[in-house]
Amino acid sequence: RRVVLHRPRAEQQEGERPANEAVSHKTKEMYYSPSEYENVEPAVQIAHGFMQHLSESTEGLDLVAVLKGRYGEDQFFAQILENPKHFKNFDLKEGLVFIRDANKCLLCVPKILINGRSAREIVIRHAHSILAHLGTHRTLCLLRDHVWWKS
């Protein structure tokens, strides 16, 4: 797939071509070559980086380790821990709770405080920083692909 960049166009009547302008043909200069994208991280690397970032954050907090054993503090996840057979979409693995969603296992984030901050806030901040502040939509997409919480 190729990306075409156009220069700003002068205002004109819809469907009308300026009289002094002939039909122009697209040149190679208007396209990006694949080699120009070599420095862009593939989505798989970003995804792996996100889960690794949760474990080795810059704030000195191993969020995955902190979440282990803390699900009982959240009323919703406490019910899952008491009767895991009643919640077939949830898996308990190594002290963490995961939800199965569309052939993926998403890490569940309980509603708990860690050092006075919400665990969910910390996850959102990590997602935002790993994407290099690319905006709310991309942050939300990354979160949807890796974590889940009851809202």
UniProtKB/TrEMBL annotation:
Chain intervals with Basic and acidic residues compositional bias: 8-23
Residues covered by the Integrase zinc-binding domain: 117-150
Pfam hit, one: Integrase_H2C2
InterPro entries membership: Integrase_H2C2
Superkingdom of source: Eukaryota
Residues covered by region (Disordered): 1-23
Identification of the protein by name: Integrase zinc-binding domain-containing protein
